[in-house]
Amino acid sequence: MLTDEYRYKILKLVALKPEITQRELARELGVSLGKTNFCIKALIERGLLKATNFRNNQHKLAYMYLLTPKGIEEKSSIAVRFLKSKMQEYEQLQAEISQLLVETKKEPEIKGKES
Known about the structure:
By secondary structure, the chain is α+β, with helices and mostly antiparallel strands. It has helices at residues 4-16, 22-29, 33-45, 69-114; strands spanning 49-55, 61-67.
């Protein structure tokens, strides 16, 4: 359930804002709070994140998430895999767009011959 895409996005967001809440993460990721909690726990269990307690502005206990050295390494390797995946998607979309352009250019000729 924890895909490279979510792993990468969570690690990236936590690196940028360690005091981010799970609610904020859920909103940024476009997923439920429960799924976010599951993902955070999985990353902590794998040793990629560390959660520490701190008091926020409203005097409530909150967590600060920190990337571990293993998490920093994993973020880099996920970024490479994620980039390769997105490049493949991009190339497939380019091919599909090219094919559609060819088809749409042929379409008026066919309609013109049918009339």
